[in-house]
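HOLO CASE FILE
Compound: flavin-adenine dinucleotide
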Amino acid sequence: MAISGYDCSEHSLGWTYKVQSYYQASANITIEKDPLSEDVHADICVIGGGYTGLSTALYLAKNGIKVVVLEANKLASGASGANGGQVSGGMRRDQFYLEKTLGFTKAKTLWTIGENAKMHVNSLIDEYQIECDYKSGIAHPNHKQKFCDESKAYVDYMNQTYEYKDISYIDDSQMREMTGSDTYYGGSYDKSEAQLHPLNYALGIAKAALNLGVNIYENSRVISYKEQQGSMNVQCSKGSVIADRVVLACNGYLGALEKRLDAKILPMNNYIIATKPLSEETVRRINPRDIAFADSRFVVNYFRLSADKRLLFGGGENYSTSLSNRILPIVTKPLTVVYPFLKDVQIDYAWGGKLAITMNRLPYFKSLFGGKVLSAQGYSGQGVALASYAGKIIADKVCDSGDVFDVISNISIPSFPGGRLLRSPTMKIGMAYGAILDRI
Ligand SMILES: Cc1cc2nc3c(=O)[nH]c(=O)nc-3n(C[C@H](O)[C@H](O)[C@H](O)COP(=O)(O)OP(=O)(O)OC[C@H]3O[C@@H](n4cnc5c(N)ncnc54)[C@H](O)[C@@H]3O)c2cc1C
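Model generated. Tokens follow.
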């Protein structure tokens, strides 16, 4: 579970905070669905009720396909209801990296997919009138001056070669004014990247899917699935779904359900805190333009203001099987590096979620059982746009009306070294090294 409930913990400064997502506390839609308790039939069975699963269900239903969604917990209780809410463009790695490793043509194709994903968020919000506090603009401040030349070169390159004009270079003093933090140097600003309330966005997609007749079951963990007499048999503890095809949309929560994907994706935990609503003066100081930030660190710090002017600050990660409840030490460390003057700020909520990364940070789409199972995961921390677009890509594949699924699944994703048992410790060492580089 991304959300650890309503536990209250006391801080040494005397205030209490909830080990619960702020998004859950400010959700504007309530959806309650019964668990699966019988054997049902559907054209497609979607496993996982986050952005990937819900948008797949929505687009399939739009095409008249009978869909059942099985969610192990509550809808969007995974990363989709817990994330930083940053709507980024392109892929998790920049075009310099993608061109170097994949060549210009594939890199350009991935850029276009990422941009379509970013714009697709707006179309969903507009079409289904999803109220999710959407606001434009993400700045990417550098925590080291030596990165600034590369940022400048990247902005020029994107402006010219990709004719992408939404990104601009921000110098040291402008960036310090934008962030209210003198730990940062220059960086880039992308005016068409955005931020939103991730849970309300997910629940808005769910509501639209329900209105189109999708059957959703919560608290219905899939234990196993197999091919049986030409169909797929998906088993929960108190019922089953017989479907023509299955869509696997479990990302960081996949666990042992499909071991064939193990080598390519690695789950990791990431954490966020929400402060109490800040004074107008502090808001003006730390974020006068009310935009979102994602910095240049290997373990990225990302932060923005909520609609009620709390600082939502994410940073710090680990790889343990379960999420930590001792979140404050993990997140306040980077928070006080960026904003030392907020070291005693009252924190009202602290929570975490699991995402899935791939070795080259590109999404991992895979067709299994001769196309009877389609799987999409590994958005590597960039799933607000990509995962909610994945649903359209999967539905297009099912309806034979698009080839983007094949384009993505043909991109080579290296395996993590160490196999299922050792990939986590091996990556821990790699990530710890990256975190050390952040500090020196
Ligand atoms: C703390 C955090 C911050 C992040 N910040 C950002 C950000 O700012 N911008 C961005 O673009 N991305 C961000 N991400 C990543 C983004 O949230 C994910 O990429 C995206 O939500 C993935 O959506 P999904 O639907 O594929 O997976 P999820 O939302 O994780 O959904 C998977 C679902 O599958 C269910 N499930 C698993 N196993 C089973 C089973 N056996 N049976 C039934 N159901 C099952 C789970 O319960 C879960 O609800 C962040 C992630 C985290 C954790």
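CASE NOTES: The chain has one domain: 8-435. The chain has a mean pLDDT of 94.
CLOSED: yes
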